[in-house]
Amino acid sequence: MKILVIGSGGREHALAWRLSQEGHQIFGAPGNPGIAQLGQIVPTTDYLAAASVVEPDLTVVGPEVPLVAGVVDQFRAQHRPIVGPTQEMAQLEASKIHSKEFMQRAGIPTARFVRAESSEVALAALPQFDYPIVIKADGLAAGKGVIIAQDRAEAESAVYSLGPTLVIEEFLVGEEVSFIVLSDGRDVVALEASQDHKAVGNGDTGPNTGGMGAYCDGRILSAYETQLVMDTVIQPAIAATGFTGFLYAGLMMTATGPKVLEFNVRLGDPETQPLMHRVEGGFGEVLMSAATGNLRGATLRWKSDPSVCVVLAAAGYPGQVRSGDVIHGLGNCPALVFHAGTKLGGQGIETAGGRVLGVTASGRDLSAAITNAYAGVSGIHFDGMHYRTDIGAKGLRRWTGTIGVPGT
C-alpha cells in the first residue's frame, strides 16, 4: 500500500519504519530526516494537500494536534481511509476535564477529582485532598502539563503556573502502565502493554516530560490484568463513544485494580518505538482493517523478545531547549535510532527539538534489551545531550530483584 504518515517525531518514524519493513510505500508529512530515509517527504502540514499529491491508500495520524483540529473528519469527508478519532472523540485528550467527567459518567475507574476553572476555585479545593496531590492543566500540554505537589506551597505554585483551568485529583499509588488499543468503533485489537518514563531524571525525579524512554515486555500485565483493563476501561470507553483509531489508557495499577490516569487519542511516544520493534508483521493490513471498519477477527503477532527505547534529549529539555547541535555517531550505532527532533543542517543531522532521538533495541530478556539499548546510546553524542540511565529498571526489580541497570 501507499501509506501517508502524518507527523514529524519519533512515533511517526517508528510507524514508518514498521510499515516499510512490511513492504509498504511510505510518505511522510511533514516528516523528518529519519522518515526521509524510508520514503518520500511531503514538506507540509496541509495534510489534505499532501493526500491530493500522494493519493495514499491509507493515512495514519501520529500526533494529537491534527486530530484535535479535525484532520480525520476532513479526510473522511473526501472518503479517504484514515486511522484516528474524529475531532469530537479527540476531546478525550484535548480536555482533561472532559475526559474525567466522561470517565465518571461511564463508570470507568479513575482518581477522585475536582474541576477548577479558576485559580481561586483550585486553591479552595486543595484541602479536600491529602498530599502529594496531582494538578493537571486542562488542555494539550505535550506531556508536561502535570505537577505532583508534595505540600501546600508546591500546590499553590502549580495552580498559578498551570492554570487557570485545571483538574485537581488524588495521588494514586501503584505502577504506571501504558495500555493502547486499535479500534474501528466496535471491535478492538490490543497492543502489548508498555511502560513510559515521564520524569526527566533517574528514579522518576524532576519535572515531567513527554517521555524519556519506554520498554515493552509481555510480562508487564498478566492475562488476568489485561482482561480486567479491557472489561473495566477499554470496552466501556469504546461502547460509550464509538471511538476509532488508537485509544491510549494511561493506567495506575493500584491495589484495588487499574485506574485511568489519562486518555490519549493516539499512540504514545516513546511507547511506539519499542512496540513497533516487537510487532512481527501484518501491521499495515490491521491498520487498513481499522480504517475501513473491518477489525473483527484481526490479530497482531508479537516477538517474544522485550524491547527498550532510551530517549536522548537536548540541552535544556524539558524547559527551553537549544537547537542546532550536530549529532555524531548515527552511522555506526548498533541499535535502531528513531529521529524525534532532528533536522538536516550544513554539517549533517542536527538537533531540532527537546526529545532528539529514541535509541531502541531488543534482547532475549529485559536485561539484555536494556544492555543493547544503552550500547547504542554510548556511540552517539551531541552537545548538551542527556538521558535517563534507568529505563526498564522497574521491570528488572519486579522480575529478577536486580537493583542496578546493566550497561549504565
In short:
With 408 residues, the protein is α+β, with helices and mostly antiparallel strands. The chain has helices at 10-21, 33-36, 47-54, 64-68, 71-77, 91-94, 96-106, 119-125, 152-162, 223-241, 272-278, 283-291, 366-378, 393-400; strands spanning 2-7, 25-30, 40-41, 58-61, 82-83, 113-116, 133-137, 146-149, 166-170, 175-184, 188-190, 194-196, 199-201, 205-208, 213-216, 244-254, 257-264, 307-313, 336-339, 342-345, 348-351, 355-362.
What does this molecule look like?
There is one protein chain. 31% of the residues lie in helices and 27% in strands. A hairpin with a 2-residue loop joins strand 16 and strand 17 (257-264). It has four domains: 2-83, Rossmann fold (3-Layer(aba) Sandwich); 112-170, ATP-grasp fold, A domain (Dna Ligase, domain 1), CATH 3.30.1490.20; 173-291, ATP-grasp fold, B domain (D-amino Acid Aminotransferase, Chain A, domain 1); 307-400, Alpha-Beta Complex (Glycinamide Ribonucleotide Synthetase, Chain A, domain 4), CATH 3.90.600. It is an alpha+beta fold and 408 residues long. Mean pLDDT is 96; it is low at 403-408. The strands form six sheets. The protein has a five-stranded parallel sheet with strand order 3-2-1-4-5, sandwiched between helices. A five-stranded antiparallel sheet has the order 12-15-18-22-19. Strands 6-9-7-8 form a four-stranded antiparallel sheet, sandwiched between helices.
Identify low-pLDDT runs: 403-408
At the fourth level of CATH, the homologous superfamily of the largest domain is ATP-grasp fold, B domain
Distance between the termini: 41 Å
Count of DSSP helices?
14
CATH class of the largest domain: Alpha Beta
Q: What topology, given as strand order, has the largest sheet?
A: 3-2-1-4-5
In CATH, the topology of the largest domain is named: D-amino Acid Aminotransferase, Chain A, domain 1
Helix content: 25-40%
Shape: globular
**Mean pLDDT score, rounded?**
96
Rg computed from alpha carbons, rounded to a whole number of angstroms? 20 Å
Helix/strand structural class: alpha+beta
Question: What count of structural domains?
Answer: 4
Number of strands: 22
Binned strand content: 25-35%
